[in-house]
TrEMBL record:
<feature type="binding site">
    <location>
        <position position="288"/>
    </location>
    <ligand>
        <name>Mn(2+)</name>
    </ligand>
</feature>
<comment type="pathway">
    <text>Nitrogen metabolism; urea cycle; L-ornithine and urea from L-arginine: step 1/1.</text>
</comment>
<dbReference type="InterPro" id="IPR023696">
    <property type="entry name" value="Ureohydrolase_dom_sf"/>
</dbReference>
<keyword id="KW-0056">Arginine metabolism</keyword>
<feature type="binding site">
    <location>
        <position position="186"/>
    </location>
    <ligand>
        <name>Mn(2+)</name>
    </ligand>
</feature>
<keyword id="KW-0464">Manganese</keyword>
<feature type="binding site">
    <location>
        <position position="184"/>
    </location>
    <ligand>
        <name>Mn(2+)</name>
    </ligand>
</feature>
<protein>
    <recommendedName>
        <fullName>Arginase</fullName>
        <ecNumber>3.5.3.1</ecNumber>
    </recommendedName>
</protein>
<feature type="compositionally biased region" description="Basic and acidic residues">
    <location>
        <begin position="50"/>
        <end position="59"/>
    </location>
</feature>
<dbReference type="GO" id="GO:0006525">
    <property type="term" value="P:arginine metabolic process"/>
</dbReference>
<dbReference type="GO" id="GO:0030145">
    <property type="term" value="F:manganese ion binding"/>
</dbReference>
<dbReference type="GO" id="GO:0004053">
    <property type="term" value="F:arginase activity"/>
</dbReference>
<feature type="region of interest" description="Disordered">
    <location>
        <begin position="40"/>
        <end position="63"/>
    </location>
</feature>
<feature type="binding site">
    <location>
        <position position="182"/>
    </location>
    <ligand>
        <name>Mn(2+)</name>
    </ligand>
</feature>
<feature type="binding site">
    <location>
        <position position="286"/>
    </location>
    <ligand>
        <name>Mn(2+)</name>
    </ligand>
</feature>
<dbReference type="InterPro" id="IPR020855">
    <property type="entry name" value="Ureohydrolase_Mn_BS"/>
</dbReference>
<dbReference type="GO" id="GO:0000050">
    <property type="term" value="P:urea cycle"/>
</dbReference>
Amino acid sequence: MRQQPRIHRNARRRRRLCGQSLSHSPRARIPRVAFRSGLCYRPGSGPRPGPHEGSRDLEADGLPSRPIALIGAPIEVGTSEPGAVMGPAALRTAGLVRVLRDLGLAVEDLGDASPDGPAADRGLPAVAAWTRALAREVEAALGQGRLPLVAGGDHSLSLGTVEGAMRHCAAAGRPLFVLWLDAHADFNTPETSPSGNVHGMPLAALCGEPGFDGLFADPGRVPLDPARIHLFGLRSIDAGERALVGARRVAVTDMREIDEFGVVAPLRRILERVAAADGHLHVSFDVDFLDPGIAPGVGTTVPGGATFREAHLIMEMLHDSGLVRSLDVVELNPFLDERGRSARVLVELVASLFGRRILDRPAPAAAVPSGSDRR
Ligand SMILES: NC(=[NH2+])NCCC[C@H](N)C(=O)O
């Protein structure tokens, strides 16, 4: 069977959505802008929006095809398990840039970030040096209309990436939502943490919990609203952080809920909420979200994680939503990996998030938020 190279199919889709050519595909006739702008358009429910109405970035199918800024964050000062420092190199080796370019996307690899000042030791002061540098880089990339893809590195790097996205969103007057794909809640404080590892604390710090003095460049920063965080895939939580997550009313989809309902219904609810608020969605993807059977290259494996298929479906839904504006891929530890297996799985998943699909097909009605264009 002849298969067209994917890059050409993508280019054709973009042209179609720009209105440069007409297609008989139902997707082309119902612009996905309805979802992106939070409007509810259903065929037959009123005048159909014109091809460019309300559009911010109609050139894309799913995720806007804004250029990607790849930023390596070789950081392991937030964990006691050495090896995550090699994460960015392993992701590049596994073809991260190549798969994205093959999708027809513009990718600039900005190389690895370095901390502001010495970051030799572990712990909060070292993490602070990275946080400042990464916040600056992410804010700058977003300000240039690029989508920052930060490759880690342990999960304390998200202190910087989320802080950068927060600053960008504050200036743009846009609400920021954080989707935390992770086995853990990462809501410990120095007081509740059983390990003292900062990679188990970033969300608590971002939300302004006590014990993080000197971490952020601006001590008067407005903290992240815990109600705009969604933990997804949770299956390991420490006693102290469990109390805090409950008290702060952080939204959680734990593995029990995924077992009962699958990933589609809970994720769809999250995407609907972000779309209705016209929000910026930051996705923080920890390798340990995945089942260790498919991704063993991580220091904090927990059995019973997301399967290969579940993870791909999540990535495809994120792509189709068009809502993701910044992304972290964290905790890959190549020293614990088996011949690059986990790195390869991650690269495949990132490709799905950026639009790689098996076939062009209308998504089943349940796969994308109701009120969005059904594709
Ligand atoms: N992002 C991660 N891998 N976090 C693991 C955290 C594990 C544990 N809850 C701790 O605080 O030490």
